[in-house]
């Protein structure tokens, strides 16, 4: 299996040139302030020449090694600002509404649960059956795919409106000026957001092969998605940083949910899935083994949610006016993303510099 730390785009051999001497230096900004010569900051878009990308039928997404799949931990980003606390509070409210719509009681297992039958635990609201888990997962994934598409749409429209490459978090540092052979889109926050949205949609498409939602369920999704999309759209225009923090907290809940599902499956509390083969679409998408089971699928999906948790919390730690997307060229492997909640700004800066050094060596 390929590691999730692979670069986003393959560079055609011999197509790159050395960067020019125009490396980032302290320059006067439009407000008269000086921008430090940092690989994390930029003041303008940078042109590159696209050549060739080697990929598959979907946007970039990590494929995890067995060790990476087991490296995920349930972590929490402590809120530091008023905006962070507001984002966390909104996620808590959303979680409670989510529990209501998915008929989840969230009762802790009794100490002697191993002595009780699965049916008893289900009848008394301690655990969900496979239909309950699918209902919960389907609802989660229909909503989880919204933020990435909203963010990408807003950044895309701004790029068209201003008639320039995507900037700020979404641009590329001056240190890469003059380099060719890397796909333009990979440097954009637009592309990262689209990857997240498509990844969440693929989660939905995968689990929908196991259950077709009823009409009432679809009606609830229609209403929830309509409200959430428009609220998130307006919120992202006002404060993208807060919105990324909100998504980071939302993904924390997703990681917790999938971890709980995995634990129950491994404990024999979802017997219907014990030997159930993973859907064919998941074997193709995550490059699972041909004999993969539902447990393998859940581990892969949880790793995806961990990636979104890490990326969004990291972006929320940056300056949206000057800092670039540190994950434009590559992402850390799951041994980092699974055990660390986010990059602080100085860590993101070091990571961007390391990415630049790797590109220059090519």
Automatic annotation (TrEMBL):
Sites where the protein binds Fe cation 1: 141, 200, 203, 305
Binding site for Fe cation 2: 200, 251, 305, 308
Cofactor(s) the protein needs: Fe cation
Comp. bias regions, Polar residues: 17-45
Chain intervals for the UniProt region annotation (Disordered): 1-45
A molecular function (GO) term: alternative oxidase activity
Principal location listed in the UniProt entry: mitochondrion
Domain of life: Eukaryota
GO biological process, one term: alternative respiration
Principal EC category: oxidoreductase
Keyword tags: Electron transport, Iron, Membrane, Metal-binding, Mitochondrion, Mitochondrion inner membrane, Oxidoreductase, Respiratory chain, Transit peptide, Transmembrane, Transmembrane helix, Transport
Keyword Metal-binding on entry: yes
The keyword Electron transport belongs to this UniProt entry's keyword annotation: yes
Assigned EC number: 1.-.-.-
Transmembrane segments: 215-238
Family the UniProt entry places it in: Belongs to the alternative oxidase family.
Function: Catalyzes cyanide-resistant oxygen consumption. May increase respiration when the cytochrome respiratory pathway is restricted, or in response to low temperatures.
Protein name as annotated: Alternative oxidase
